[in-house]
Amino acid sequence: MPDDTGFNLCQEMRQTDTIILMLSSMQDTNYILEAFEKGADDYVTKPFNLQILKAKIDALLRRYKTSSSNLTSNKPLVFDRLVIDFCRREVVLDGTIVPLTALEFDLLYFLASNPNRVWDRAELIAAIWNRDDYRGDDRKVDIHIGRIRKKIGDHEGKLIKTIWGRGYMFELSNGDRVKLAD
């Protein structure tokens, strides 16, 4: 990229509802992990097989189309200061819209719609990525959870709990309940 880095472009594109597949000759693990941190949905290194690239693109498009159609609700979920509105695909924290990517929204909505249950990475990948045969790095889930926590101010993991050795859980305290907005 002559004018900018792929990482900067990736971060800019993450502000919109866009699928990002990075194509690069860089094969260093740290570089690839940084690409996912910056918002890449997938990463392909050169040289690559055109059939595999097409299959990856098809899978990303399929996941994008089906992830939003599998998660349905008419009323927003309300958790104290956090409102998750599926129909508007909007998350509001203390009256301010939180910019989430489509994948981040789907992951947060899925966890919040199924509170107090531990979901391991494979289950989340199957539910959100809609791929039982997903072959990518399952640590991608950790990166997305980290981004969501940062964006909703859940730095201590009070809403999205990490259950070490098991997975993640959207935890409601004894007094908390999932409320549907009127």
Short summary:
With about 180 residues, this protein is an alpha+beta fold. The chain has helices spanning about 5-15, 30-35, 50-70, 100-115, 120-130, 140-150, and strands at about 20-25, 40-45, 75-80, 80-85, 90-95, 95-100, 160-165, 165-170, 180.
Summary keywords:
single chain; about 180 residues; alpha+beta; Arc Repressor Mutant, subunit A; five-stranded antiparallel β-sheet; two-stranded parallel ribbon
Description of the molecule:
This protein starts with 5 loop residues before the first helix and ends with a strand. Helix 4 crosses helix 5 (about 120-130) and helix 4 crosses helix 6. The protein contains 6 helices and 9 strands. With about 180 residues, it is α+β, with helices and mostly antiparallel strands. It has helices at about 5-15, 30-35, 50-70, 100-115, 120-130, 140-150; strands at about 20-25, 40-45, 75-80, 80-85, 90-95, 95-100, 160-165, 165-170, 180. It has a domain at about 70-180: Winged helix-like DNA-binding domain superfamily/Winged helix DNA-binding domain (Arc Repressor Mutant, subunit A, Orthogonal Bundle), CATH 1.10.10. The strands form 3 sheets. It has a 5-stranded antiparallel β-sheet, with helices on one face.
Please compute the radius of gyration using only Cα atoms. 17 Å
Quote the beta fraction: 15-25%
Overall average pLDDT: 81
How do the strands line up in the largest sheet? 6-5-4-3-9
Tell me the helix content.
25-40%
Question: What sort of overall outline do the alpha carbons produce when their principal axes are compared?
Answer: globular
